Amino acid sequence: MALVRLQTEHFRNLAPDPVSFSPSFNLLYGANGSGKTSVLEAIGYLGLGRSFRVSRHQAVVSHGQSRFTVFGGLDQGADESVSGDEGGLAHRLGIARDVSAKETSLRVDGENVRSLSSMAKHLPVSVIDPGVFDIVAGGPGKRRQFLDWLVFHVEPSFASVWQQCQRVTSQRNQTLRNGRIDESLLRVWDSQYAGLSERLSDSRQATFDRFKEAFELLVKQVDVPWTQGLTMEFFPGWDRAHELTEILRNHREQELKMGHTLYGPNRADIRLKFQGRPVAETFSRGQQKTLVILMKIAQGMVLSDMGRQVTFLLDDINAELDVGHRAMLAQKLRALGSQVFITSIEHPDPESLWGAGDTPDYRMFHVEHGKLTEE
Ligand SMILES: Nc1ncnc2c1ncn2[C@@H]1O[C@H](COP(=O)(O)OP(=O)(O)OP(=O)(O)O)[C@@H](O)[C@H]1O
């Protein structure tokens, strides 16, 4: 499915007019500050429930307003089991946030829904912006987020196990911080925590295996010699050859001293190594960027194999990737049948991405003062 209709109200500087997009490529260009990233950010809200660039909803509400709304219409795509409504839309998604009342309302097909996952599962949104390179260069948290996004779209029930595990972890942390050792209470938390951790890690491992397979297939297709010698491995956050409850008991003193949980899914990582050393230490910035792009494409391949279409949001990639890498990305995303939004400051040249006479279906928009005009 692809996002073919978007309408926002009081969202940054965006005009409230509805816009229709291509289920294939959408090229958005405009001057600095015209609103290009805001369009991607609004789309991101429907698939992620939050902004991909700021942590507070407050920042995106238009100045002087207290509530914003984003509405999106999804087409049926290749999924013939889904029938469209009279407007040809397979799903209608809506998110509104009142920042004064601190209330979020979510709607799917005209019904209020409570959980974000009920909305987000319809629109797998993958962002490639200058911040994405932290997946390789940054800490394990970024890589967990990267993996969990895919696990959720492969297996939507993962969201509720993840939330339960977060809740139990924070309760367990509170007990650890209490100072007074209440061994019987800790054992209760240990066993609940270990059960949820096993379930979470099984899901992560299974999805990681699919991801790795897709990644290995991809590197065989692209001409990137340094991918030989690259290894990736999922680390669940503890040594699964041992029971987690046993590890927790054996490290009780250490955890009490630190005041939080040191073993389990919150320590999980995707370990990326080149000739045995972490890629963050050995790869050049350019190699790290290419690796992230390949990893993002591999995620798209996993979902594409399941008949799902990812909506890629490519923000300001001209500043980060050279022509060759941009073209590789554009070709692969085309082959996947993904929906893609690409922003740029200059008027885009589709032929530089796909070659003369071989451009896919695309729509081009000029963005000015928050308003999109199709060309
Ligand atoms: N809450 C808000 N209310 C109203 N306008 C806002 C709000 N937040 C940001 N803006 C303005 O909205 C505009 C859109 O910014 P955006 O980052 O989307 O532009 P852009 O086209 O991606 O620019 P660049 O090419 O510089 O990255 C900016 O001019 C900004 O000042």
Set down the secondary structure blueprint:
Blueprint: E1 3-9, E2 19-20, E3 25-29, H1 36-48, E4 67-74, E5 91-98, E6 103-108, E7 111-113, H2 116-120, E8 125-128, H3 134-137, H4 140-154, H5 158-177, H6 183-221, E9 230-235, H7 244-250, H8 252-258, E10 269-274, E11 277-278, H9 279-282, H10 285-305, E12 311-314, H11 323-336, E13 339-344, H12 350-354, E14 362-368, E15 371-374
Parallel strand pairs: 3-13, 3-14, 8-12, 12-13
Antiparallel strand pairs: 1-2, 1-4, 4-5, 5-6, 6-7, 9-10, 10-11, 14-15
The chain binds adenosine-5'-triphosphate.
Residues 12-13, 30, 32-38, 60-63, 316, 345 line the site of adenosine-5'-triphosphate.
Family: Belongs to the RecF family.
GO biological process, one term: SOS response
Subcellular location: Cytoplasm
Low-pLDDT stretches are none
Q: What is the residue-averaged pLDDT? A: 92
Tally of separate helices:
12
The bound ligands are: adenosine-5'-triphosphate
End-to-end Cα distance, whole Å, is 24 Å
Rg over C-alpha atoms, rounded to the nearest angstrom: 22 Å
Tell me the name of the CATH homologous superfamily of the domain at 1-124 and 339-375.
P-loop containing nucleotide triphosphate hydrolases
Relative strand content: 15-25%
How would you sum up the global shape?
globular
Assign the CATH class of the domain at 1-124 and 339-375.
Answer: Alpha Beta
The total beta strand count reads: 15
The CATH topology of the domain at 1-124 and 339-375 is what? Rossmann fold
Main sheet makeup = 6 strands, antiparallel
What is the second-level CATH architecture of the domain at 1-124 and 339-375?
3-Layer(aba) Sandwich
Portion in helices: 40-55%
Report the order of strands and helices: EEEHEEEEHEHHHHEHHEEHHEHEHEE
Strand order of the largest sheet: 2-1-4-5-6-7
